[in-house]
């Protein structure tokens, strides 16, 4: 069983690895991809199932919006858990999503964001994360959630090789075990996959079947 010291050492190693990539730019690319995909959604699509267990597209979008506002607040040192709560999509769900996504992109683009400490109450109430760790968490979410939205809407999603190369070690460090089957878990157990496609490999590591909905 990993100790708190082991986890701290692992995260420090992870920070060193991720320092070689432009996380701010790559995260913005992933989030903008999600915007482009959500732009195709209609009100009729909101009731469609998604690769996220028990979530329709409506539920997924409310989750994504809450995450954007929560992470943006954390980048300013605000750890109020109320800021992570879901909010109504409103009359124009696509606009609501775009506004939230642009908000977090702008927050992460502020000078020195990677040097800050982020309170992330959805991850831990006892520990603050480095900017590199926090942006990595958000980044992998929006690689995977872009894929989720694309699958839901029957669209293709494309990321360049640099982005996927950066996303792979983030996916690999996501804890496994019982955390993957707990209620409300962000990611399910690893799905066996023989695919050689890098995005397929990443989503399978994080509990999605690359062949969803099969």
From TrEMBL:
Protein name, per record: TIGR03086 family protein
Positions in coiled-coil regions: none
Organism: Nocardia iowensis
Organismal lineage: Bacteria, Bacillati, Actinomycetota, Actinomycetes, Mycobacteriales
Pfam families: MDMPI_N
Domain Mycothiol-dependent maleylpyruvate isomerase metal-binding: 29-150
